[in-house]
Amino acid sequence: MNFFESVISAALNQPQTGKLYLAAVSGGADSTAMLTGLAALRETALREKAPFSLCCLHVEHGIRPAVESRADAQAVMALCEKLGVPCRVVSIPPGKIAAFAARNGCGIEAAARLFRHRALKREARRIKADSIVLGHTRDDLLENILMRILRGSGPAGLAPMRSKRGRILRPLLELSRQDILKYLEEKGIPYRTDSTNTDIKFLRNRVRHKLVPLLDEFFPAWRSSLTAMAETQALTAEFLSSEARERMAWEKEPGELPFFKLKEEDFFRAPPILREEAIFAAADKLAGSKLPGKVPRRLALRRSLEQGPGGRQFIAADLGPVRLERQNGFITLRPVKKLKGERGFSFLIKDAGLHTLEGRIWGGRKARGKDLRIRVSEQAALPMVFRNHEEGDLLIKGGHKRRFSDILDGSVRSRYTDIITVCDAQGTAAFIAIGPSEGLLVIGRDEIKAGDLSFMLGGENV
């Protein structure tokens, strides 16, 4: 057993006899090395008459070109055949993840992670696996912390990934990417490289290829310092969570849409940081795990709660999928419910060209029956989704993230009775507003060029 395999063995507390481990393998260097190491440990355990079982799941996300995605799946299947590991491939229909991300206001990566974890959990139940093994390395751990610092995460978000959480195991967290590559070279094992790994429009890639090299050059000890800080934040998060539960006990109210309530005096008596922790914990229970990225950042929440001395003037705040309100001596947190009669729709565009969104589908109240014809150029960031507008939708305009209600003043905004949100692979691309006399107004984000999208409503050019 070499160093790499001994680290995996120690992280798994030596693979347990008779247990079944499900390995998530993308075909990249990290997961390929992990699967190879697990297979080597399985052979050693078999010789020592302490066998354990190993299976593999590969998820095709339907995000990248089909040729590349399919080649990854074939590479994983070939490796599994060579190692004698049963393998299953789950393919998600192209455009499904992009549509989910657009509909729920989260990034493509977050949506892909949610779909991947769902597939892993389903497969684990199907084969009765004892553990799901993921290939996150020490580099991934540090990159995650850097990204969360840049996003303004609280203590819980800055805590490091754990090597064990429930059935999830991460045996590579003590190993660097260099350790991974060295092991693969020693074993002569090829691996796949995701073409999107160099695309710096994604935050992780900007951190990995731009920020990390600068930190290595000017702050050589940053890795150990960041790890120590993350461990401190983990302890802080644990303490704050315990204090919030003790001081502010949410009561769950049953009903068609269950909600939480808390006595107003208990809420305002607690320090601001505990209020935040209590809100985020309750929001996670109501909607957070199903709708990643929907609950706002701490700064937005903090400003909502600080509208008067001690926050006493606070009335209500929209937090994406949940709404926080002050009512009859209680603070309530409840899921957002669509207005009665509101029609939901989602229209996916995967290719450049002319497309028609039929009026009967999008259901404009003042323009019912008028088809919206959409011309998409080759330069547009596809896939693209047209869906119902939500109040929390944000568009980058003038270098700032703005809601539709921030862009137009109240008198102008009231003239538009129907709003469509357009999302692409980079986030919210545009707002389309329809009014009875004003016709159609299109507000695109800063990077959107006029030629990327053009429209006709009811046969009239816009």
Largest sheet: 6 strands, mixed
Radius of gyration: 25 Å
Low-confidence stretches: 308-312, 338-342
- In whole angstroms, the N-to-C terminal distance is 68 Å
Overall pLDDT level: 85
Individual helix count: 16
Biggest sheet strand order reads 3-2-1-4-6-5
Key terms:
Rossmann fold, about 450 residues
Layout of strands and helices, then pairs:
Elements: H1 3-11, E1 20-24, H2 29-47, E2 53-60, H3 66-83, E3 87-91, H4 96-104, H5 108-127, E4 131-133, H6 138-150, H7 155-158, E5 164-165, E6 168-169, H8 177-187, H9 203-218, H10 222-247, E7 251-253, E8 259-263, H11 264-269, H12 272-288, H13 298-305, E9 316-319, E10 322-327, E11 330-335, E12 346-349, E13 353-357, H14 359-362, E14 372-376, E15 384-388, E16 395-397, E17 400-402, H15 404-407, H16 410-413, E18 418-424, E19 427-435, E20 439-444, E21 453-457, E22 460-461
Parallel strand pairs: 1-2, 1-4, 2-3, 4-6
Antiparallel strand pairs: 5-6, 7-8, 8-11, 9-10, 10-11, 12-15, 13-14, 14-21, 15-18, 16-17, 18-19, 19-20, 21-22
Helix pairs in contact: 1-2, 2-3, 2-8, 4-5, 6-9, 10-12
